[in-house]
Amino acid sequence: MTAAVLVRVAAALDLVARPIILAGLWVGRLTSWLVLPIIAVVLLTVVMNAMGLNELGRWQEPIFMLGRALTINSVIDMQWHLYGLLMLFGATYALHTNSHVRVDFIYERFSPRTRLVVELIGHLLLLIPFCWIVSEMNWPQVRMSFVSGEQSNYGGLTHRFLIKGALPVALGFLALNAFARCLSTVAALLDPTRLEKEKYYVR
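User: That's the sequence. What structure does it adopt?
Assistant: Structure tokens below.
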């Protein structure tokens, strides 16, 4: 293939990858705002513990996720629900900004082209299969939780299937973004000038 053809193929791959990467960054930035309600919920838990409060309110008709009362156990459940969503959906942002954990003392010694090859192999053989396997294993639990109406056993939040379902959804989204990074990596391998024109990772 001629250089001109390789450049066109690289441009086409980047055209497909870019919207997915932008969506991953947008979701990551949006998810980062969950830090604020997490802080508020943790503070509320501390105050309720200090004041010896077990309930903040009770009502007749059940409310979505809360049931018939807002208890300290509900607030504790909110903590790990929100934190779980932050970690799960924030993973795509970490992927695209290169802020995830890696063995840097080895990776940093590689040439730019070798790094791209390592990225491609890692995403195709490790990250994407991992996301798919865990998602497949988790869906039966989500269905069982939905059918059984699973909720907290100690007066916490209801509708447990929602937080369980967040895992396969988030991993599926992460796998899609990893695939987009693969397309972007192949584009950079075909057209190395892309690494000079724009950063491979977003900051």
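The helical segments are 3-32, 35-51, 72-97, 104-107, 112-148, 160-190, 193-197.
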